Amino acid sequence: MVMSPIKEQLYFQCFNEIIRQITIKNPEHGNVMIRIRDDLKMSIDGYRKLQESMIAKDIRKLLLKEKEKSNLEKMVQQLMSENERLEAEFAETTKMTQELELEIADKREEQALNRAKELDDIKKEMEIIKDRLRSEIARDRRERPK
C-alpha cells in the first residue's frame, strides 16, 4: 500500500511526539522507541526503493514488449506486402502458363493438320504413282508379243 507523502509526514510527526512524551517519562523506553522509529524508517525506505525498482523494471519490460510488438507489426506488414507481391507474381505466372499452354495446343493442332495434309498429299502422290505404274505395266503387256 502506497502512503501519500503528506500522510506519512503527519504519522511520523505524531510518532515523534509520542516518542518525546515517552522519553520524558522514561528515557529507556524513549531510546527503544527511537530505535523502533529508525528501523521503521529504514524498512519503509527499503520498501520504497524496492517498489521503485520493481516499477522501473516493469516499465522497462513494458517498453521492451512494446518495441517487440512494433517490430512484429512491421514484420507482419512486410510479410503481408511480400505475400501480396508473391500472389501477384503467381497470378501473372499462372496467366503466362495458360497462354503458353494455349499457344502450344494451337501449334500442336496446326502441326497435326499440316501432317494430315502432308499425309494426304503423299497418299495422292502414291495413288498417282500407282496409277502410272499400272498404266505402264498395262502398256508393257500390250506391247509385248505373246
From TrEMBL:
Coiled coil as UniProt keyword: yes
An example Gene Ontology CC term for this record: dynein complex
Keyword flag Transcription: no
Residue runs in coiled coils: 62-143
Entry-linked Pfam families: Ax_dynein_light
GO MF annotation list: dynein heavy chain binding
Keywords, ordered alphabetically: Coiled coil, Dynein, Motor protein
PANTHER family the record matches: AXONEMAL DYNEIN LIGHT INTERMEDIATE POLYPEPTIDE 1, AXONEMAL INNER ARM DYNEIN LIGHT CHAIN 28
Family under the similarity heading: Belongs to the inner dynein arm light chain family.
Protein name per Swiss-Prot or TrEMBL: 33 kDa inner dynein arm light chain, axonemal-like
Organism field: Sipha flava
